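User: I'm writing a short report section on ligand binding and want a predicted complex to refer to. Could you take this sequence and phosphoenolpyruvate and write out the structure as tokens? A short remark afterwards would be nice.
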Amino acid sequence: VKRVYRFGKDAAGVNVTEGSAHMKALLGGKGANLAEMANLDLPVPPGFTITCQTCMEYANASNVWPDGALEEIHEYRVDLEKRMGKTIGDDNDPLLVSVRSGAPLSMPGMMDTVLNLGLNDRSIHGLIAQTNNPRFAWDSYRRFIQMFSNVVIGLDGDLFENAIISMKRKRNVESDTQLTASDLEELVQEFKRIFSQYTPQDQYPQLVEGSSCAFPQDPLVQLKLAIEAVFGSWNNPRAVLYRSKNRIPDDLGTAVNVQCMVFGNKGNTSATGVAFTRNPADGTKEFYGDYLVNAQGEDVVAGIRNTSPISELKTVEGLQEAGSELERVFLILEQHYRDMMDIEFTIEQGKLWMLQTRVGKRTAASALKIAIDMHTEGLISKEEAVMRIEPQQLDQLLHPQFDANAHYDVLARGLNASPGAAVGKCVFSAKAAVEAAERGEKTILVRWETTPDDLAGMIAAEGILTSHGGKTSHAAVIARGMGAPCVCGVEALKIDAQAKEARVSGTSVVLHEGDLISLDGTTGIVVLGAVDLVSPSLTGNLDTILEWADEFRQLGVRANADNPEDARLSRSFGAEGIGLDRTEHMFLGERKQIIQTFILNDNADVRKEATDKLFTAQQEDFYGMFKAMDELPVIVRLLDPPLHEFLENPRDLAVEIARLEAQGVADEQLSEKRLLLSKIDSFVEANPMLGLRGCRLGIVYPILPVMQVRAIATAAARLIKEGLHPKPEIMIPLVCTVRELKKLRATCEQTVQEIADEFGVSLEIPVGTMIELPRAALTADEIAKQADFFSFGTNDLTQTTFGFSRDDVEGEFIPQYLSEKLLAYNPFATIDAAVAKLVAMGTDLGRKGNPKLKVGVCGEHGGDPDSIHTFHNIGVDYVSCSPYRVPVARLAAAQAAL
Ligand code: PEP
Ligand code: MG
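Assistant: Sure. The structure tokens for the complex follow:
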């Protein structure tokens, strides 16, 4: 196998690139796109890429190199030196290289990079002689030692930062740039000393000199260790967490790119920056990004120094030409990739170099605008435009915003880095955010800047607030990817993370941990206290893309809703009906009392009275629902949950009785409660979810379905009389044999007919069933003979197929199953293959039994894009999901069809 691929030009200026953009699985995103840019004749510093497969082989063999790999790397290193006419770490004219990670799927900032490799105590003098710039050279060397120590050896970055701080104190200067060449030379000595003190000898025997480790002087030792460290970073905890959060497989591995260094820190005609070909926050067609003059790579992304906007680059003395060249490159890249691109570049003494390009991450709003604009510009087809939007991302647009009518005072302003609004308690560390989330508290993570180590806290928090860094800082990029609101670069915020407080310049406000704040990532505003939030509606670009999606999709999309307000909302989101109205949700509040009376009294008259009351109430519920969904189908499911769910908890009641007994309350006064307890106890089942629920309730208590069906039919009859066109359908839950359905169907039909006669209208109300037990799926052909439609209840079907309780997913074992990969993913969120097989079998058998059968899915999976692909392939007629998932489902259904 070939493990190494080169990119860039040879000594004669001929392109000798071996890879291309299509080879991401092999070369990683960075390596493949470096090759592609070199093939486009863009200025790419030469180098070579070691494949992702080599990383996995190395990792799987417990960090032992596969046969031949080191020899191949050696060959390509010698080749690179020949192409450059320089040797890595040469005493007189050293070639310096960067060693960068680059996985097949982008994992921004999660893995490691080493810059300036090849410097040592001798080659530093070569670099000084070549550049005539001792300050630059010593600064490069100290950066190299610092990065190498941190990335390769794992030494704490603070050891080095503190040494810089004390040097600045000693020299009485404010910023790093005020340190002189000899200050930096002194720092290099100090850094090497720190390296020797902290590097564990047992782990690095090859570095031991005398009684401690010494900073490696041999460039080839440096290179080998750096490559190994980048391979190792594939499995560092933050990379593992990022992958599981973003469902990136663990077996892809990372490539390693060894590339000639170019320097953005060679003075005022040098710069480094990151940019997007369009605005990644709102999609505006403009060059967007930040740069720093006289700085090196990571300074920009790390958000450590405040940057300038890319639009100013062309106006800076000595950078104009490179600035124009950069704009030319932006256009070439967009035309070539036909997408919005994200770019890293360096300008070395006026000359532009491209260090990376990839398809740019963007907010949902930006994705919509870019897709529509690019279609209008003739760059992409309508189908491609629809495919460009990540369905999950649409959630962002349905994110809360500050209520336009809310009154609030702006505490501070920053950059609107990631849209949406959030309210939460201030926390000053990722750990505090995670702990608060475990207690169920909402937080805003307040940091000077974020680093990849903050990832867990960023996930746990509602929103992210930083005092430093631009719109391409780590916090901004990650927040946009997650869809979390983020305001960054709030300079007025003076954070003391140690003291867990932040002062706000120009005010007397001091924020303490736990104080409530609100932030709006759409506008960049920070407010003290909680601001009311509102959910936005479908507008503009979202509406356009969804209309395009509707042209392509084959699946219908309905909503799960049980009140007129949700029904109207889902209709405004494009739902084509209600796929599931869970009527038990209508039995809350005072109605709970009525149903309790029903359950706890054997007396037929009392029961009749209770059901009459329920009838009146339910009739109004259905009237509202059918009216809101006029002309569209509304599937009403008859009562489903175990009855004890409507009753008081027997344990609480027993405790109360015991307490009253202890207080000496007289027996007579307790008798009623005791009677209640014994009744409730009589309803207790060992496995209530497998007990008296679903259609079994209607069979044991026929008066209940009769009441519900009368209410449905009456509401429909009234609306017909008013000239509307209600389309109710009745659904029987948890059927396992056709006989259950046959019996209840007869009840339904008879009851509907009675109401039709009573009102003198014709009522055609289809009767169908849920398929949520394996036995039902396996006998679907028989069941379908009694059903007008099926709706797969994939929540219960998953529960009963796996034998996993759906109510305990967060409990003990499923999280462990997920982390040990005994389960690839949570089957209650994304449909499992075996459950899908039951759905497919049930659908096929059902249609054999009844060719007119309509088939839908109404479990949670109906709103999950991956599951929607599965249901499309199975060929069901529609999916049904919660109102806010309806836009997501419309888009996912179109993508499944394309
Ligand atoms: C199901 O089981 O998938 C379903 C939709 O019904 P419920 O969630 O109400 O049990
Ligand atoms: Mg169910």
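A remark for your report: The mean pLDDT is 93. The chain has 32 helices and 35 strands.
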